[in-house]
Amino acid sequence: MSKKKLIYPILMGDVVSSSSYEAKKLGTELKELVDSVNQKFQKSILSPLTITLGDDFQTVLNSVQTGIDIIFCIEEECLLHELDFKLHYVLHTGTIDTEINPDIAYEMLGEGLTTARKMLNIKKRDRKRFKIDIQSKTDSEQLNRLFEVLDSIIMNWKKEDYSLILDMINNENNSEVGDKYNKNRDQIWKRRSTLMIKEYNLLKEVIFTYIR
């Protein structure tokens, strides 16, 4: 009797239009981003985020929920460090035939990795930044819709507002946020409304609730 293959959540990502950035600076920033995520999620990662081709990464995880957590972590780390680039993501569940490498996401083979890589490499003009392809087709479709709406908010944010945006995401008290930026409560309320911070947090909450 053949051994039943295990299904793993696989997360891959690459930098959008990576050739338009200075290679050395991009490589350093992506490595720092990956290192930070690996440290924060070390208990939930089966094979660590590993940069493979210079502008992308892959990892094997213990759950789909961890994959979603990492996507939001990366997006908000980009705000924290005011990074210029954006990332495409593929979160796929599939089989891996070889042993999971706990030290580096290399030297593993299987349908799951092959399929995730193919999805990541699709070159379409209307390619979405977030692609969720898990075992449930219905769940995948719903999560993709939610992430598409979420991304419509994110892509309207400007780099000069990243620090303020992150503080508003993490703190609902307009007075406290205003004190940090020498603005009054009403000014922060207006910025929160214009930048759709409430909507971002609501979508984030819905996504987290949906995958639990």
Characterize this entry briefly.
The protein contains eight helices and five strands. By secondary structure, the chain is α+β, with helices and mostly antiparallel strands. It is globular, with a radius of gyration of 18 Å.
Characterize the structure shown:
This protein is α+β, with helices and mostly antiparallel strands and 212 residues long. It has a single domain (7-156), classed as Nucleotide cyclase, GGDEF domain (Alpha-Beta Plaits, 2-Layer Sandwich), CATH 3.30.70. Helix content is 50%, strand content 17%. The chain is built from eight helices and five strands. It has helices at residues 23-40, 64-80, 111-120, 137-154, 162-170, 174-181, 185-194, 197-211; strands at 7-15, 45-51, 56-61, 87-95, 130-133. A five-stranded mixed β-sheet has the order 2-3-1-4-5, with helices on both faces. Strand 2 (45-51) and strand 3 form a beta hairpin. Helix 4 (137-154) packs antiparallel against helix 8. The two termini are 34 Å apart.
H/E element order = EHEEHEHEHHHHH
The oligomeric state of the chains shown is single chain
The helicity comes to 40-55%
Measured by DSSP, the beta-strand proportion falls in 15-25%
Count of β-strands: 5
Q: Average the pLDDT over all residues and give the rounded result.
A: 95
Q: Low-confidence stretches at least 5 residues in length (pLDDT < 50)? A: none
CATH homologous superfamily classification: Nucleotide cyclase, GGDEF domain
Q: How can the largest sheet be summarized?
A: 5 strands, mixed
| CATH top-level class | Alpha Beta
Coarse structural class = alpha+beta
The number of distinct structural domains comes to 1
Radius of gyration: 18 Å
CATH topology: Alpha-Beta Plaits
CATH architecture term = 2-Layer Sandwich
Give the strand line-up of the largest sheet.
Answer: 2-3-1-4-5
Compute the separation of the termini in Å: 34 Å
Q: List the total number of helices.
A: 8
